[in-house]
Predict the 3D structure of the following.
Amino acid sequence: MIRPIVTDVLFLARKAEPACAADASIADDLLDTLKAHKDDCVGMAANMIGEPKSIIVFDDDGTLREMFNPVILSGKGPYPAQEGCLSLTGQRPARRFRQIKVQWQDRAMKPHIKTFTGWTAQIIQHEIDHCAGIII
């Protein structure tokens, strides 16, 4: 189901709660909402649709991916970036890493660890910031 985008900064600033397998419908709604905004959005976090859960979805070079409870284990190659967000107006500065190692769970709660680089790494970092209540 396509959900409305939350723009309430106080809600977005709340730290997300851990997600569990029962939250799979939230991931489904996130994917539907991301697809509906594909022309101007490449990633979303659950709080952007009003769910304070640690779930993100993103476009990984044309394939939509989801992560439950993502955590950045390490980052290399810091650089300054300018980012926009469906929940916020305009562009904002951010510090990102060119390469990140991420740990997460899939919807069956199976753990994964993978290294991401470039644009995909930047998207993941932005969405994990949402889960932490960080508003760039």
